[in-house]
Amino acid sequence: MTRRTLLTAILPAALLLAAAPTLPACAGGDGRLVIASNADAEVVAALHRALDAGGFSGQYLIQTLGTAELAGKLLAEGEHLEAAIVTMSTYALVSARERGATRFAPFPAGGPEPLAADPDLRPITAQEGAIILNTAALGRLGLPTPKSLRDLADPVYAGNVSVTDLRSSSTAWLLVQALVAAYGEEGAVEILAGIYRNAGPHVESAGSAPLRKVRSGEVALGFGLRHQALADAARGMPVAVVDPAEGTYVLTESVAVIDKGAATDPRAAAMAACLLGARPTLLALYPTPLYRGERVPAARRAPTKHFPQPLTADLLARHQRLADRARELAAK
Amino acid sequence: MRRGGDGSAGGLRGPYAAFWSVAALAALFLALPVGAVAVRAFVGEGGAGLGAFAEAFRGGALPRALLNSALAAGLAAAIAAPAGFALAWAVRCSGLPRWARAAISGLTLLPMLLPTITYGFAIVYAFGRQGVVTSLLEAQPFPIYGLGGLTLGYVIYTLPTAFLLTRNALDYVDRRFGTVARLMGDTPWRAFVQATLRPMAGPIAAAFVQSFFLAFTDFGVPASVGGSFKTVAGLLYDRMLGSLPDFGVGSVIALAMLLPSVAAFFLLRWLGRAQTRYERPADDLPPPRNLPRDALAALLGLCSCLLTATVFCTVLIVPFVEAWPYATAPTLAHVRAVLGDPGLMAVCRNSLVAALGTAALCTLTAYAAALVTVRSELPAWCKDAVSAAATLSGCVPGMVLGLAFMLVFSGTPLGHSLLLIVCCNTFHFLNAPYLMMKGALEKLNARWETTGRLMGDAWAGTVLRVVTPNARRALLAVFGYCFVNAMVTVSAVIFVAGARTAVATSKIKELQFFGRFDDIFVLSLLILLVNLAATALLRLADRKAQP
Predict the structure, then answer these.
(1) ipTM score for this prediction
(2) pTM
């Protein structure tokens, strides 16, 4: 093999690499700032409105991703993330920061005062978990209305329950937190195993999946996001919410600016601050106060509780192992 | 005599150029990313060690998931490979009218034109408790969550590939042997076994291996109908991403998924040795009249068409009604909503560009790789390296490759570019095009290069002037395969696509996250239309390429 042969071979690869920088430009290097979010459509719409009202119309692009994809990207790409601003689960942001995968720029001072302080993050929504029912299906099957999460483990509901898997869905964490806080870890494993047994094939990976199955009548009841079920009920679907006796737990989602050093987009801080302008709309969708001075009608407000320990990645890992044990117990 | 025309080292310049091109690309876009994943399995945040392995194997979830996946994928491949061959036989060796053969081919290949994500949902919408078929039968025909639904999904997913692989190989089996066998007094069955089944044993086995790995590494089907039957792809997704990503454990699972690839490598190599060589048979004569044979072919075709039609009718029904299953009045609102989405044209353009680029690069790479392994006199290590790269690409799940690309290329100028999507797709798909190319090239006369060399042609000259024209139908088939796959793939692309380089399938994944199934089906239909158009164009080209 001669040197020329080697050159002929390496040339195409070199050309490919040389052509690379021009490609993102062809695809639309339009100077728009990218905001990555795992938020639901109605939240994204509210964020759009807030930014447009703040005069940023046409200067940004909101890229929506699943929770898992966004968390993976955040950990793998860190400061190379295409997005300048991220909105996602607060614990995932904190865990990425703790693991040294991503650094965030301090959140711009001023603006509303959050109830839970973090120098880099500002909460935008609060996700609450609740028991969700298809009232029509429940009636058709002649099943009683459950009052607590423990009731979901009752064998009368076998084959008619849908929940999510803690390995893939943070919604499941709301269920596990409530069980652990109320019954201790061993009690939680036992009840969770009963729930998994009842759910059978309906242990889902996406947080919105149980509601989808409840809505379509594929199952009669499940554990899902409270605000989504309330919205379904308001649209006249046969869907109802039961706030479980164990209490309603909360996971917040926050906005953060990625610290890219010199490459940080100068508009990012102002846009992030502007996003908080969506709070009044979001508060109407997710009825949980997150900032000082926010009010929610008592009828919509859930009896919220907070887990006694801080919500960290370590705690989640511990709870995931607990849920794994419950699944193994259920499989026996 | 031209320089390099003799059998000296200079005569290997062309083959070496092809080899090093493939090797350079494979090193950069396959070995490097996969290597990065392997390193992650051993080196975690707490330093090097086997901690990730201990964590991955705790509780026995990984071995169980591996067994589950092997069972479901094995079942599916055991159905898909013979079924694919049976259909290929019905299309190529029966006396069915041309339209019937076209219909069987078309409907068998239809699922290929749709994203894998769509199959699972189509199964749920067809056979679920509220499904179209269920409401027609007034009973659920079989439990769709778990092994049953999974196997059905995998069969739908892998049947087109098995069909294509065996049909292409069947093109090169000389049918005159069958006629001769019958004239010599063999029974129809014996003639079939001797003249068709024997020479096709290798391709059928290759189709089995290919189907097995497609199913084994697929994520789309288990995501929707897996239920509590945990597959290794699902486990990988949960650990690699999930609510608490752990790249260490994820990498270990990815490596565990790669293990069977070693088995496949040796299996396929062994199968390659048992290959029969034929001259390119020129005859396209209609086979002799035989009513029982044609009736059997028609029955096979009907079964396949019925299965496809049943599952995919949902894709045609659901987007055109208000809200299945509650409000079934027909409406075009969903279609209008999707077409009115401002970002959609850009997304579709990105998809087209990425698919065309992938088809070009992947076809070239597969062709060069196959030339190196079957039509060059390069040393064995070169051929083994190329073969290993192609096989590895078939065993690396798209999710793993995409994630590996993200780990390696983000922050480089290539990051989030359409070019990176093209490269990622190329090495995600390479295995099947390579096998198709290899199968086609193996059947060509092995003496052309020698003849060319004696006539004073360099290897590249023979390849360009003799081999390529004779392989153009296979090249076209490979081009189509890559284009269509690039249009429908999602697993790898989801990690590589950026905010501005989003493609139609990553849009579908996004819509899935938000539970907008009407829109998913509309977009799936759009992809289907593009693919149908592309397929029609390629068929025209193929007709022109016919000798």
Answers:
(1) 0.70
(2) 0.79
